[in-house]
Specification:
By secondary structure, this protein is α/β, with parallel strands linked by helices. The chain folds into three domains: 190 residues, 3-Layer(aba) Sandwich (Rossmann fold); 67 residues; 95 residues, no CATH class. The protein is 37% helix and 18% strand. It contains 13 helices and 13 strands. A hairpin with an 8-residue loop joins strand 5 and strand 6. Helix 2 packs antiparallel against helix 3 and helix 3 crosses helix 5. The relative contact order is 0.10.
């Protein structure tokens, strides 16, 4: 098994270099006039063609071409796929177009796939959007590519290009998922490797707060009064701002790495198999919300790894907020996959889902999947 995929953050050093091309500079490439002309005309295909006539190690080619040229010489990285993640700006998008055209035409590399993705809200005009949404979207898109190619073991990350915060998040993502990351400063003569670190996350936080994290991951923002009491362990995954004297929380980029990391490491627990002899749900002789029994039966019927389900005696029904799933410990510290349901009259009830694997990893995965499937958007 070899790493053959490179996820590359992209900056605008290429365009910066091209904009500075002028008569009499000693480091000008031989075709500098043609490069500058194509750049000035915004002719990105012609520009890519002219870059092919320059040496890929020349500084004018920009950080991405320079680092990829060095990285491909590494024996552990036989490249056949490159994904470029570019900023949500005209310069970023156009740089991506040039890089995609350039590497598609690099016949000597024999690349199978070259793609470019604009990362929504990764821009510097709205700092809050950049901090919360842009960086989170960067993590989410990188995670999609990692899953698409088969997992972290097939991927390396080039974190040379882009905003400093963008580079830092790419490094953290690689370290969290055991993916090698490399970087090159413009004054360095070679790239630097960031080897994977033995980092592990406490996914008990995700298990206990799976329903709320689903809402955060979808872009929800909640005041302290809406999520009181707030799990203190969850707080480290959130961004807090004060609005009208009250704390309002959103998922932070680190929180997105946490959630994305779990989904990549646990695409499906191997022991969560279909139940051989599933049994119908059972319900106590209580008054239930409208549609409660039908919903529990639907969840059991559509997820074959559920063995059965049963209702739970009423406990603080007013605290139940809609449909959700999370992992809780009972009085004997046994883990339970608990579901909640609330009808239109805000009358709620809880139920316990019994699965074919009741390990923490399996129950956390199940809670996350069920929330994505059945929990309405906030």
């Amino acid at each position: 098994m070899k790493r053959n995929t490179l996820i590359c953050t992209v900056g605008t050093s290429l365009f910066g270099n091209l904009s500075r091309l002028s008569e009499g500079k000693p480091d000008n490439p031989s075709n500098w006039r043609a490069l500058r002309q194509a750049y000035d005309k915004n002719d990105w295909n012609a520009l890519a063609g002219e870059l092919l006539n320059a040496q890929p190690t020349e500084r004018v080619c920009g950080a991405e071409i320079n680092t990829i040229e060095e990285a491909r010489k590494k024996k552990w990285l036989p490249l056949d796929t490159i994904f470029f993640l570019v900023s949500d700006t005209p310069e970023g998008e156009n740089t991506g177009k040039v890089l995609q055209a350039y590497f598609t035409q690099r016949r000597d590399l024999s690349l199978r796939t070259v793609e470019c993705r604009v990362i929504d809200k990764l821009q510097d005009k709205e700092p809050k959007d950049f901090k919360v949404h842009g960086l989170r979207n960067l993590v989410r898109r990188a995670g999609e590519y990692i899953q698409r190619v088969g997992g972290p073991e097939y991927v390396a990350i080039d974190a040379t290009g882009g905003y400093k915060a963008q580079i830092a998040i790419a490094v953290l993502l690689g370290q969290a998922l055991n993916i090698p990351v490399f970087y090159k400063h413009e004054r360095f003569s070679e790239i630097i490797d960031f080897p994977p670190l033995p980092i592990s996350f406490d996914y008990q936080i995700l298990a206990s707060n799976a329903d709320l994290l689903t809402d955060f991951e979808r872009g929800g923002a909640f005041s302290s009064s809406e999520i009181d009491p707030l799990d203190e362990k969850l707080r480290v995954l959130l961004t807090e701002v004060i609005i009208d004297g009250e704390s309002v929380y959103e998922l932070s980029p680190i929180g997105q790495i946490y959630v994305t990391g779990f989904r990549i490491r646990h695409p499906k627990p191997i022991h969560l198999v279909d139940a051989e002899t599933p049994k119908p749900p059972t319900f106590r002789d209580d008054h239930y919300p409208k549609g409660f029994k039908a919903f529990v039966e639907k969840v059991c019927a559509e997820n074959l790894w559920i063995r059965t389900a049963n209702s739970i005696p009423y406990d603080k029904p007013k605290s139940i907020k809609g449909i959700g799933f999370s992992v809780k410990q009972d009085a004997n510290e046994k883990l339970r996959l608990i579901g909640t349901f609330q009808d239109k009259d805000r009358f709620g009830a809880r139920f316990w889902l019994h699965t074919t694997d009741e390990s923490l990893a399996a129950l956390t995965w199940a809670a996350d999947v069920l929330n994505q499937k059945y929990r309405p958007s906030p």
